[in-house]
Write a structure and sequence with these properties.
Structural class: alpha+beta
CATH superfamily: Gcn5-related N-acetyltransferase (GNAT)
CATH topology: Aminopeptidase
Number of helices: 6
Number of domains: 1
Shape: globular
Number of strands: 8
Radius of gyration: 16 Å
Order of helices and strands: HEEHHEEEHEHEEH
Strand order of the largest sheet: 1-2-3-4-5-6-8-7
Amino acid sequence: MTDRVKTFSRKYPRDISLARGSVTLRLMEPSDREAMVAFARSLPPDDLLFLRIDIATPEGVDEWLRNIEGGRTITVVAEADGAIAGYASVHHNEVLWTRHVGEIRVIVAPEYRRHGLGRRLTDEVFAIARDIGLRKITAQMTPDQKGARVTFERLGFRPEALLADFVVDREGKTRDLLIMSHDVAGFTDVEYLSARTAARR
């Protein structure tokens, strides 16, 4: 983990201010296992639909941590008062024809939504995506996750594909899967713009 941290343009851990207060941004570690399971179990079921693994189980988080250790996933955690308030991950692989593409996953606790945390976490993983040489980022959700879609559209994501009956929920019902994408080079970084504006004053 230490070697990978050195390649990132942003420093971790780092405190940021939100409308609700301050949170600490840091990279996910093995010691986050129980806290992440508790965080996942506190979320509405639909928030977990588009994830590749079941992070509400210790086994699922163990697989996640193995992906982090293997360099396939990089996760930034937002921590407030000793609890996880949200996270953002970028997942990628080195398969030749998709090595320039990463998948982003952003989840924020309900009490921290509409306070800017989701956007700040997205800023973090886009900066990391640039650092590791990715050119395109995708996000997945079901079409009825209207809040998530609106959030990503505001960030500049655009629909790429709609896959029918691609997701099965916990009740066994199938749902469509919406894939959205954004070019990394075209992303507007809120933290970078704020720093540049302050420097001009």
